[in-house]
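User: Can you fold this complex?
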Amino acid sequence: MYKEHTVCVVVPAYNEEKLIGRVLETMPDYVDKIVVVDDGSSDETATIASGFDVHILRHPVNLGEGAAIATGIEYALLEKADVVVTFDADGQMSAEDIGAVVNEVLEEGVDVALGSRFLTARPKGMPRMKKIGLKLATIFTKLSTGLKITDTHNGLRAFKAKALRKIVITQNRMAHASEILSEIARNKLTYREVPVTISYTDYSKAKGQSIFNTINILYELFTGGGK
Amino acid sequence: MISIKIILTIFLLVILRAFLVQESLVLTKRVVAFSMFLVLVLLVMFPKISTCVANAVGIGRGVDLVFYFSHLFLLFLIVGLWRRSVVLMATITKLSRAIAVQSARKPQVGKEQKTEGKDPT
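Assistant: Here's the predicted assembly.
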């Protein structure tokens, strides 16, 4: 409970056995429900997650991060969450920032709080190409939705349940991040960006999105995400 | 000169067969497939036909005309297949989501004890 509201954290996970344990360990006490969505992993992600006090949902086949988030959100709403947070399982995010986004939604009353790694000092160890790619994404977002966002592809977000019911995610794979933003614009939801930290370890660099994927994400957006 | 015509006709026959062996194929589609086969065989056997038609519409060679139409046809086909795969993917997603939500595993480490959740055993 966070100020009398049920907080639910959705963690999409695909083959994250190495780090998901560490991520779940750090979850703050005020988080009422943790929903791990195992996106058809072929490793021990689900087994490791089942050692924690979490709800585990499993996609029979791998569908992509967008689909996993959408599944987690649907479940969180069924479980009567007041605030839903999305949080990555790869250990790049800091669990302390969950409080910041949740607080923004509950105290400041915005519908959606979006994490941004660019509101504070320049993120340490961020590859230069990555920075350029993300910069291009902000321009693309400005042009397509009119939203002025400093970090369009940040997986740490908090949603009010009421706002979440209006957001429809159809992009199964990485393009869901842009889709969430265009849904915010379409439904005229209020939003605010919150500074969060994203750490760049060798593991995350190897696993995370390469800059070349920007092209894939654009392609997914234009073609509707169906392969 | 004769041999390439025979090879092409054999290929067309193989494709036609691949269509017609599907038991689920409705009669109208069978007729369409068969008539397309007949037209293509005619074009292969008597290339002059396509040249005549091509000249009539202002294209020099008959082969070019066939080339343009086959490209249009293939593009049409690709768009159709792609749209079908988008619908298919959406269906699979819906199905997977329903399965995931129905077979959700609730926490078993006791109720709302976040701090105790640290021990995976």
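The two ends of chain B are 78 Å apart (CA to CA). Chain B touches chain A through 32 residues (CB under 8 Å).
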